[in-house]
Model the fold of this input.
Amino acid sequence: MHHYKMLINGIQVAGANGQFDVINPATGAAFAQCSAGSLAQLDDAVAAAQVAFKAWRHVSHAQRCERLLAIAESIEQGADELARLIVQEQGKPLELAFSEVMGAAAWTRYAAGQQIEVGLVEETPTQRIELHRKPLGVVASITPWNWPFMIAVWHIMPALRAGNCVVSKPSSLTPLSTLRLVEIIARHVPNGVINCVTGEQGFGSAITSHPGIQKIVFTGSTATGQSVMRGAATNLKRLTLELGGNDAAIVLPGTSLEEVAEEIFQAAFLNMGQTCAALKRLYIHESQYEAFADALTLIAQRQVVGDGLEPGVNFGPVQNLEQLQLVEALVADARDQGARVLCGGARLDRPGFFYPPTLIADVTDGQRLVDEEQFGPVLPLIAYSDVEDVLRRANAGDMGLGGSVWGPDVQQAQALASRLESGVAWVNCHARIQPNTPFGGSKMSGFGVEFGLEGLLEFTGQQLQFVNKRAGE
Ligand code: NAD
Done:
């Protein structure tokens, strides 16, 4: 079985604490092993990044841009192998894994081309005030298991582009594609600029309180995000927290079923529903409730569930047993309260963590399946009759990542969407993201953004340069 090693200061290093198994969710069995690093090795990685930062911070923007473009090209060249590795550790179908890799390359290219200008705040005959942006130092990236390769790229590329050095810590459930990514990056940058540590227990919290780290970019659950924030207080680390969501979608009366059903289904079940910004609660006007339920059920029944490496499969397993058990518990709770299971609703009787696309009707707010983030292949369909009431229900709860409104009158839909308490409000679409559009949550879905200029600037600190031109006159 292949043993994947960490990368510290440009060298592949075995874990001082041995190794751990990485499970293929399509079989439930280990297919590779990964190094279990020690806290001393985390210190080594941070120290290497600190040393590398002294030079990397002064590398010109043009040169950093060039390095990132070369990295993007290497990612594309390795796309087939990377995509197969993602399928094995994460479970998504091969085509989707391939899109993850190609999307990551596109995001890298975008980061390469971004510019950080000096801002001129004021220029008068007597004084000149400029706003400069500087890299922060060592950035730690902590990533989840749903889009392991893509999210690592979202964290690492803007950090490097802005002149920081990085210590990456992937989820121990999906560490392998990140280790391969970091190896690729390391071929194009000096030793220590990028490092990756892996381990099962305790690493994350050691990172959050590490005095050698200046910023953490974290994507994961709200509970862990709170713990990251507590740890970061030790040396006032800058934080970007991309946390959980429980996105509502409101379908207004008169929405064309034919035009939107497929997009709604895909937005809910993207990556088997294991997507932060997936549509997680679907509110349908009572006039179209049954028609939508029927149309979505037909689409769900067309999905081909299986091992993502098998040809024709477009719906993979849940990534891990714990997540599968959460989905089972939420569906059981809804059933107990009289919900109607339109399709799916039970784990498949085969090895691996397979749960088919599941639609649950006759559920409502106050039930676990509606109130909690399911983060899996099940969607609750909730009927409503009054628009103001449904808006109130969409905004209830602590989460505020995204939300959407669907309707034939775009202006009316946008007016309603603007009243959603969420970091992103989509109209007649959901879960769409692009490298040039700042993305981030509100309320307990986190703070800070990724992507666009705003996302890049989160990897910088500012220095105001206030110049009295008359000195020495
Ligand atoms: P998680 O919070 O369990 O783990 C995320 C990462 O944090 C992992 O690398 C984990 O090892 C690490 N970690 C665990 N304990 C830690 C600690 N005490 N200190 C620091 N790090 C620690 O999340 P998950 O289960 O891997 O991912 C699913 C969650 O992530 C969902 O809630 C989902 O909505 C969210 N998510 C959000 C976004 C977004 O952009 N907002 C994107 C993807 C996933």
In short: The pocket of nicotinamide-adenine-dinucleotide is lined by residues 142-146, 169, 171-172, 204-205, 208, 219-221, 224, 227-228, 242-245, 276, 373, 375, 401, 441, 446 (CB under 6 Å). The domain at 2-243+445-464 is CATH 3.40.605.10 (Aldehyde Dehydrogenase; Chain A, domain 1). The mean pLDDT is 97.
